[in-house]
Design a protein that fits this description.
Blueprint lengths: L29 E3 L5 E3 L22 H4 L14 H22 L9 H18 L16 H15 L3 H13 L5 H21 L1 H4 L9 H13 L3 H25 L10 H6 L4 H7 L17 H4 L13 H14 L37 H7 L6 H24 L1 H8 L14 H5 L8 H18 L1 E2 L2 E2 L3 H25 L6 H11 L4 H31 L3 H29 L1 H5 L10 H15 L1 H5 L6 H10 L3 H10 L5 H8 L2 H8 L10 H18 L1 H29 L30
Helix pairs in contact: 2-3, 2-4, 2-22, 3-4, 3-8, 3-31, 4-21, 4-22, 5-6, 5-21, 5-22, 5-24, 6-18, 6-21, 6-22, 8-9, 8-21, 8-31, 9-31, 13-29, 15-19, 15-26, 15-29, 19-21, 20-21, 20-24, 21-22, 21-24, 27-28, 30-31
């Protein structure tokens, strides 16, 4: 018989706890529970820091195995009164909040961590307050558990994913005065999401089940869920740590967001210049929307810093560093004849540098009147926006080739012999193996959902006797998006980075629908939105696998979240557009409201849809934007050849594998948007986390790195929501904080640009 100090396996029937290879069990640790089952009394068992391994995580995907537990209790209830009530309520709440963020100058979003924290607070409160005796046990069946919690998170985060359809509908309203019937608009939003969901289901074998598909941003979500719900002294310490960090950022974040906005972008160079020189503003400014690209600008606002996921993303890209040089040289050398235009903007401009009057060249049917075009002239883009579009297209071309070169064995394994249509049995992921006890969602469910949603989408594209997008075009661009979803899905699953494809779709649609800006805009629903909805659904399916939610329960949660989100996305969008129309149309916007996302769709629809041949055909002003896709196909090839020819395991071979050209290309063009004060803070924090802590402090990294990310995201999201409604005007008029040195009246918030 083993001595009490000898580490042994848990008794039969007892689930494996995280890092249990270093835990010893004695008879007093095991007790019979009320229904005769034997369980570990984790509260009486001491788990110390030494129980967490100090092995350095070398491969990115090993995070999912080293940091996350594969523990599962199949008898935990999932769809309870608590989970349904909170799931519906939080779905409505987060869909409203995410819609508000769409019209903000900061590129903010509602994170799953925000949904997770609110759900935990409310779920545990309901368990504490509601009776649990007698018939009440059906409404309050024990402590709020991890599976209830995850289902609520999946529902609310699905609802919070802003549909591209909502943005397109807003653009039609703002720039074309086309107002869709509310029922048609809501069905359009829902259908465009569900098409992506159908594709996601068919890609599970490739982009959900395997270990390499680990979705870095989701590690912190699952890590927090397990810390909140798994017992033991170690998790008690992690919960306490989480709430301390959460409270600290909650009370800090309102300072840079409201009374002291200078702290959102601290630039010593801007402070010294004090708005006197345009060059300084362009290169170093970063405090206000479309001000500058933020070289050496640091932020103390986690709301902005979190956009870079510095504690989560693998240390992968040099693209942004190249971008500072490329954008500056291109603009000051008058590339694309944009020297006399604004430094940053997604809007269209006329030959004198003013806003382009698109209505002056369009007929009542929203097609080009060429006689009017001759007098008005062609529109122009800012140089930085042209560079950005080129880089995004470079990135897409590189992503396609990168996936085929580096992941061909995985593609062959998934699609060879149509194996993706049936569940795979040769996947060795420990989380996937635990899921084998549950009934899988049949592939025909996803196929039916895909076909039905496509039919609804086609029907909703017909408006008042005219096709916004012909049926054959809906089918064509959906098919193209299916192929692209595989490529960008690999990039997102293995690195966490999301490749931008909308410019490529706009270019392609410009030649398919020449002279029809509304049709080109609508292509985004099927050529662009479908791929991104596929990614969103794949990530939630992976979350369900990590937390051992039965696949059919995950399916139901995603469907419910999409329906609720579609309704509230639309209703909140209508309110914001009605109350802030002038700010949303203005190319610069305000510090509170900005239509930069919607303006981007409109600019593309006019420049590419109405005037694609005049602007993007070979030899025309912006032809490199279109051809960038084909040039990007070449980017990964040299690095792949070097990796193959260099000695295996050498520094050169590893270096070539480490450079992911789609990501590098993407981030060269990532800067000419919105507010940029956060990126140097992201660089420093990311280095400390993913390089220093991961290699020098592996115990801390495994226990607290992702938990820290969760706490910072959660606390900052909660306070930003409160501020949005309290003082930023989400529900009415904004309340400005009095001007002072840290909140200047005639300068941008980082004191780098004059505003009067």
């Amino acid at each position: 018989m083993a001595s009490q100090n000898t580490a042994t396996a848990p008794p039969p029937g007892v689930p494996q706890l995280p890092h249990s290879d270093s835990i010893s069990y004695s008879e007093k640790d095991v007790k019979d529970d009320f229904d005769g089952k034997r369980t570990i009394d984790v509260e009486s068992h001491s788990v110390t820091d030494e129980d967490v391994g100090s092995t350095i995580i070398t491969k990115d995907e090993d995070v999912a195995v080293e940091v996350l537990s594969s523990e599962d209790d199949p008898e935990l209830p999932i769809f309870t009164f608590r989970s349904i009530f909170l799931g519906i309520g939080l779905s409505a709440f987060t869909s409203v909040l995410s819609t508000i963020y769409t019209f903000k100058p900061q590129n903010a979003s509602v994170s799953q961590l925000f949904c997770l924290i609110i759900a935990y607070v409310l779920g545990t409160a309901m368990h504490s307050v509601m009776p649990s005796k007698g018939y009440w046990r059906y409404l309050n069946p024990g402590p709020f558990n991890i599976k209830e919690h995850t289902v609520i998170v999946i529902m609310s985060s699905t609802a919070s994913t802003v549909a591209v359809a909502m943005e397109i509908i807003a653009a039609l309203d703002l720039f074309y005065n086309i107002k869709l019937n509310p029922a048609v608009a809501i069905f359009q939003i829902f259908a465009s999401q569900m098409i992506g969901y159908g594709i996601a289901g068919l890609l599970r074998t490739l982009l959900v089940y395997p270990t390499y598909a680990f979705y870095p941003k989701y590690i912190s979500v699952v890590n927090l869920l397990q810390s909140l719900h798994f017992g033991g002294v170690l998790n008690h310490k992690k919960r306490r740590y989480f709430w301390i960090v959460f409270a600290a950022i909650f009370f800090w974040e309102w300072i840079p967001q409201y009374p002291f906005p200078l702290l959102t972008a601290i630039s010593i160079i801007c402070l010294a210049d004090n708005g006197r020189h345009t060059f300084v503003r362009n290169l170093f400014g970063a405090g206000s929307s479309n001000e500058g690209i933020g070289l050496f600008s640091f932020s103390t606002s986690w709301t902005l810093i979190s956009q870079g996921y510095p504690l989560v993303w693998p240390w992968r890209t040099l693209g942004m560093a190249i971008g500072y040089l490329t954008l500056t040289l291109a603009y000051y050398n008058n590339a694309f004849n944009g020297r006399n235009l604004l430094w940053m903007s997604t809007s269209l401009f006329n030959s004198e540098g003013g806003s382009y009057n698109q209505t002056a060249i369009l007929t009542p049917q929203h097609t080009v009147d060429h006689s009017k075009l001759e007098s008005v002239g062609l529109p122009r883009y800012t140089t930085t926006y042209v560079i950005s579009q080129m880089c995004y297209n470079f990135s897409l071309g590189a992503a396609i080739v990168h996936v085929f070169l580096w992941h061909w064995p995985d593609l062959k394994r998934a699609f060879g012999g149509m194996r993706f249509l049936r569940a795979s049995q040769d996947i060795d992921d420990p989380h996937y193996k635990e899921m084998q006890k549950y009934k899988e969602v049949p592939q025909w469910w996803y196929i039916f959902l895909f076909v039905a949603s496509l039919a609804i989408g086609i029907g909703c594209s017909y408006n008042h006797g005219d096709w916004l997008l012909p049926a054959w075009s809906v089918i064509l661009f959906t098919a193209i998006s299916c192929v692209i979803a595989v490529c960008i899905g690999f990039i997102a699953a293995t690195t966490g980075f999301q490749i931008e494809i909308k410019y490529a779709m706009n270019i392609l649609s410009a030649f398919v629908h020449p002279g029809k800006p509304v049709s080109v805009m609508y292509v985004n629903l099927y050529g662009n939105s479908t791929a991104y909805q596929t990614l969103a659904m794949l990530q939630d399916l992976k979350l369900g696998q990590y937390t051992k939610i039965p696949p059919r329960s995950t399916f139901a949660a995603q469907m419910a979240g999409s329906i609720i989100g579609s309704i509230f996305n639309y209703t909140m969008m209508i309110s914001i557009v009605k109350n802030n129309r002038e700010a949303l149309i203005d190319p610069l916007g305000t510090r509170i409201w900005s239509g930069w996302i919607i303006q981007g769709y409109n600019s593309s629809s006019v420049a590419m849809g109405a005037l694609g041949k005049e602007l993007f055909a070979f030899g025309k002003p912006y032809y490199l934007v279109a051809f960038a896709i084909f040039i990007g196909l070449l980017f990964p090839i040299p690095f792949w050849i070097v990796h193959k020819l260099a000695p295996k395991g050498s520094v050169i071979a590893r270096g070539a594998e480490y450079i992911i050209t789609p990501i590098v290309a993407l981030y060269v063009g990532y800067l000419p948007y919105s507010v940029n004060g956060q990126w140097w803070s992201c660089f420093v924090i990311g280095f400390m986390s993913q390089v220093w802590a991961r290699s020098r402090r592996p115990k801390w990294f495994k226990k607290y790195n992702y938990l820290t990310s969760a706490a910072l995201d959660g606390g900052s999201q909660v306070i930003l929501f409160i501020l949005s409604f309290a003082v930023f005007g989400a529900s009415g008029d904004a309340i400005a904080f009095p001007n002072w040195w840290g909140n200047p009246a005639n300068l941008s918030v980082d004191r780098c640009a004059l505003t009067d």
